Amino acid sequence: MGTTSDLRPGAVIKFNGELCTVVESEHRTPGNLRAFYQVKMRSLKSGRMLENRFRSGESIEFVRVEKNNYQFLYKDGNHFIFMDGNTYEQIPVEEEVVGKLSDFLREGQDAMLSINDGNVLFVELPTSVVLRVSQTEPGFKGDTATNVMKPAVLETGANIQVPLFINEGDLIKVDPNSGAYLERVKE
Fold first, then answer.
1. If 0-12 CB within 10 Å is exposed, 13-18 middle and 19+ buried, where does residue 115 land?
2. Which pLDDT value is given to residue 73?
């Protein structure tokens, strides 16, 4: 148990029976009213944003979450298999927990898993991942006057928009959270 003064972005709390991660916490003292904390949080189960006011000094149930680095091995049915690099223990993670990040997971890639009581709450990838373009239309010389984009399919099967100068076989950096092209990587 903790109090409202312990609320920080990234903390995981139990709110109305479900686990939520704190996105934003602001202490307010309006005029001659009592102080309170305005808290924005995201439900880990549904992903929706919640907002609540907590009285200053109110008790809140914090949940201990362990974050460890794991390596993605392979996909087995609707489970993604991750391995701890220190103990070689393999952990199956359900497809709904990985979510849209599965489009950017490549075998052997590192990921950060947040675990509570043996259950994986969420998966985080690095801020950028390097993937190979497996299919795209060729760009034409002279088409670089504006910021024109074209569709491309990555080695993981993800569809993203890339600039015209990107060709098949190129390595590119992609932001896995937004699915946006960042830059071309030299081999």
1. middle
2. 92
pLDDT at 178: 87
Same CATH fold assignment for domains 66-124 and 129-185: yes
The CATH number of the structural domain formed by 2-62 is 2.30.30.30
- What are the boundaries of each domain within the chain? 2-62, 66-124, 129-185
> Averaged over 7-36, what is the pLDDT?
87
- Grouping H, G, I as helix, E, B as strand and the rest as coil, residue 19 is strand
Q: What does the pLDDT average to over 101-121?
A: 87
**What is 129-185's CATH number, 1.20.1600.10, 1.20.120.790, 2.40.50.140, 1.10.260.40?**
2.40.50.140
